[in-house]
C-alpha cells in the first residue's frame, strides 16, 4: 500500500473527504489518498458562503488531469467560508490537502452526523482494503 497521511484530529468519509472540528465550525477538504488518486488538480468549484450543504450530497466539483469528480458533504450545515486561494491555485489541494488546501468551513447543524464518519484508523483500514482490489 502506498504511504498516506491521515491526521488523527480529523474525521473521514467513504467519499475521501476529511472533516476537522474547531468549536462550532468545521473545516473540510479532500484526503491525501484522494489527492494522490486524482493527480494534478486543475480546477475546484465550491459553493459560496451562506449556502447550505447536506450530508452525503454533492456540493462541488474537483477536476484533475485524470478525472472530474463530485465533492460530497461530510455533514449538513451552512457554508461560512470557502477557500478563495483555490480559485487561483487549485494545486494547493495536492500540496497541502489538510492545511492550505482546505475547501470549506461550515457550521454544522446536526452533530449526530459525526457518528457516521470514520476516525483515522478506520479510514486507513478502508483505504487499505480498496488498495488491495
Question: Please, could you describe this protein's structure?
Answer:
With 133 residues, the protein is α+β, with helices and mostly antiparallel strands. It has one domain (11-132): RNA polymerase II/Efflux pump adaptor protein, barrel-sandwich hybrid domain (OB fold (Dihydrolipoamide Acetyltransferase, E2P)), CATH 2.40.50. Helices cover 21% and strands 33% of the residues. A six-stranded antiparallel beta sheet has the order 1-2-3-9-8-5. It has a three-stranded antiparallel beta sheet with strand order 4-6-7. A hairpin with a 4-residue loop joins strand 1 and strand 2 (17-22). The longest helix is centred in the C-terminal third of the chain and has 13 residues, at 120-132. The chain is globular, with a radius of gyration of 14 Å. The termini are close together. The mean pLDDT is 96.
Which stretches are low in confidence, meaning pLDDT under 50 for 5 or more residues running? none
Q: State the CATH class.
A: Mainly Beta
Could you tell me the number of beta strands? 9
Number of helices: 4
N- to C-terminal separation?
11 Å
Radius of gyration: 14 Å
Annotated CATH architecture: Beta Barrel
CATH superfamily assignment?
RNA polymerase II/Efflux pump adaptor protein, barrel-sandwich hybrid domain
CATH topology: OB fold (Dihydrolipoamide Acetyltransferase, E2P)
Biggest sheet strand order reads 1-2-3-9-8-5
